[in-house]
Amino acid sequence: MESTLSRTHGLLLETPSGLAPSEERTDQRARDRYPISLDLQYKVLRGGRVEQIGTGRTLNISSGGVLFETDDRLPQRGLVEVAMQWPYLLQGACGLKLVMRGHIVRSTANHKETAVRAEFREFRTTGVRRQDAVSKAALSAR
């Protein structure tokens, strides 16, 4: 079935062909989501303490949050911090990690997928990659 997409007042409207206007569906998310698969580490936090740690993989991401999957059982609600290795280098040499902290807003029945609304987000550097640093040093010595 084909569908048409249009953006109206920040909402993404999807109208499958053959449906009457009253049957239109809307996506009420305020921010665009981007499908990207990145390894991540998470920490479930409570009262300033780390209650659970684990790993997973992102399914999609936006500036407002992240949807990820994990084999671990996470709580239906709660504070969580996720950290993802960003696929691009800062100035071509320095690794980046995107860290988001926020509340779990949705977890699927089988607890495999978890949605987090980001209340805090920042990029952190993870250090200069050795091979890149060696290559740059060799170039500057010329």
Verbal overview:
Strands 5-6-7-10-9-8 form a six-stranded antiparallel barrel. The chain has two domains: 1-30, no CATH class; 34-128, Electron Transport, Fmn-binding Protein, Chain A (Pnp Oxidase, Chain A). The protein is globular and about 40 Å long. It is mainly beta and 142 residues long. The protein contains one helix and ten strands.
Helix/sheet category: mainly beta
The largest sheet, given as strand count, sense and whether it forms a barrel, is: 6 strands, antiparallel, barrel
Rg, rounded, reads: 20 Å
Which second-level CATH architecture of the largest domain applies? Roll
How large is the count of helical segments?
Answer: 1
Q: Reading side by side through the largest sheet, how are the strands ordered?
A: 5-6-7-10-9-8
- The global form is globular
**CATH fold descriptor of the largest domain:** Pnp Oxidase, Chain A
Any low-confidence stretches, pLDDT <50, length ≥5?
1-28
User: Helical residue percent?
Assistant: under 10%
Count of the separate structural domains: 2
Share of residues in strands: over 45%
CATH class of the largest domain: Mainly Beta
What is the CATH superfamily of the largest domain? Electron Transport, Fmn-binding Protein, Chain A
Using DSSP, what is the number of strands?
A: 10
Series of H and E elements: EEEEEEEEEEH
**Mean pLDDT across all residues, rounded?**
79
Q: Give the N-terminus to C-terminus distance in angstroms.
A: 60 Å
